[in-house]
Design brief:
By secondary structure, the protein is of the alpha/beta class. It folds into two domains: about 1-120 and about 240-350, Zn peptidases (Aminopeptidase, 3-Layer(aba) Sandwich), CATH 3.40.630.10; about 120-235, Alpha-Beta Plaits, CATH 3.30.70.360. Helix content is about 35%, strand content about 20%. The chain has nine helices and 15 strands. The chain has helices at about 30-40, 65-75, 85-90, 145-160, 200-225, 240-255, 275, 305-335, 345-350, and strands spanning about 1-5, 10, 20-25, 55-60, 100, 105, 115, 120-130, 170-180, 190-200, 225-235, 260, 280-285, 285-290, 300. The strands form five sheets. Strands 6, 7, 12, 14 and 15 form a five-stranded mixed beta sheet that branches. Strands 9-10-8-11 form a four-stranded antiparallel beta sheet. A two-stranded parallel sheet has the order 1-4. β14 and β15 form a beta hairpin. α1 (about 30-40) crosses α8 (about 305-335), α4 (about 145-160) crosses α5 and α6 (about 240-255) packs antiparallel against α8 (about 305-335). The relative contact order is 0.20.
Length: about 350
């Protein structure tokens, strides 16, 4: 049973930290509360169940500050830039058979909603550096090579190939400029960008990542600059286990009502639970309990009962069903599960991304 120790920077949120801008407008704090609530619920019944429940507060799920984390990676302090891939590498899941956690979701339903959890995109992280030539911005612009123009051309190049992105591959590309010039009177000779390339499956990720690299480099070629791209291992697509979901769905219906429980749809977003789902049966439900948007300044926890009571009850009841009667249901689900990767092949795949 996982919960993520994380927040995001959203400086305009009413509860943002005044120094760092960090705010709980993605619901990671709700995950931790649910993990603890499940622990309290199970405390007095574990002796009647056959199996162990591990409470695992996970390292950050938000794949951000890529340049900084990559520096830690170069220094040997991290192997991967996301929480669960790092935990997998360190062996935290070696003696775990199944995994579950929840997330929050916007809702307009006064009773709250429970989405049992569908699939999600995976993505590759990228660091992109454009290098041009500095010159006086007014007196001698002809003697320079503007790295910002190269970056703009690269992004426009990606926009030009968006019509080749198939709908079923659910491709997303969204960059930020983390360094874009130092002085306004100097032709900028250096631009650094961070971005994700997202897609619904591993084959699509590899294909579109290569196409986007070509487009980004073409922006540099257009003005005689250079472009260096580093692709970084990030998160794999999420594949929730159907039998595990069916058990969770039944318990969620008991607490939320059948009309308020649905499977949900494929999400273009990503979660590092996708990596875990390649190794073992996983569920990742979404609880409709907020108003506003995720990662937005208007995010508000609007249904505390759905967030903290109903969802934790559904999760705890599911664990009881898994481990009751000699853990027969857990044994069945694990026995039928066919892992997409072993730990060894997972690490080999991730380390090959560059």
């Amino acid at each position: 049973m996982l919960g993520e120790l994380d927040a995001i920077i959203c400086r305009n949120h009413e509860h943002a930290d005044p120094l760092t801008g960090a705010a709980h407008c993605c619901g990671h704090n709700v995950q931790i509360a649910n993990m603890l609530a499940v622990a309290v619920a199970l405390k007095d019944v574990m002796q009647e169940l056959d199996g162990d429940v591990v409470l695992l507060p996970s390292r950050p799920e938000e794949y951000v500050e890529i340049d900084y984390r990559n520096k830690l990676r170069r220094e040997g302090k991290l192997r991967y830039l996301g929480g669960k891939p790092q935990l997998i590498a360190e062996g935290a899941f070696d003696d775990v058979d199944m995994a579950m956690q929840m997330h929050v979701e916007p809702t307009k339903n006064q009773e709250g909603e429970f989405l049992v959890g569908a699939s999600c995109n995976g993505f590759i992280g990228k660091l992109i550096e454009y290098r041009g030539k500095a010159a006086h911005a007014a007196g001698a612009p002809d003697r320079g090579s503007n790295a910002i123009n190269a970056a703009m051309m690269g992004v426009m190049g990606v926009n030009a190939i968006r019509e080749t992105f198939r709908d079923q591959d659910v491709v997303r590309f969204h960059p930020i400029i983390s360094s874009g010039g130092d002085l306004i009177n100097v032709i900028p000779d250096y631009v650094k960008m961070e971005c994700y390339v997202r897609a619904a499956n591993i084959d699509a990720l590899a294909r579109y990542n290569a196409a986007i690299d070509r487009a980004l480099k073409a922006g540099a070629d257009a003005i005689g600059a250079s472009c260096e791209i580093q692709s970084l291992p990030a998160y794999l697509p999420l594949h929730p286990d159907e039998s595990f979901r069916a058990l969770l769905r039944a318990n969620a219906a008991c607490r939320f009502g059948e009309a308020n429980v649905s499977d949900g749809e494929h999400s273009a977003g990503s979660t590092d639970m996708g990596d875990v789902s390649h190794l073992m049966p996983v569920v990742h439900p979404w609880v409709g309990c907020i108003s506003g948007v995720l990662h937005g300044a208007d995010y508000v926890l609007s249904n505390r009962e759905a967030a903290f009571v109903k969802s934790s009850q559904a999760l705890a009841m599911t664990i009881v069903d898994l481990l009751a009667d000699g853990a027969a249901e857990a044994e069945r689900i694990c026995g039928e599960f066919k892992p997409l990767l072993t730990k060894e092949s997972y690490l080999e795949f991730m380390d090959a991304i560059q």
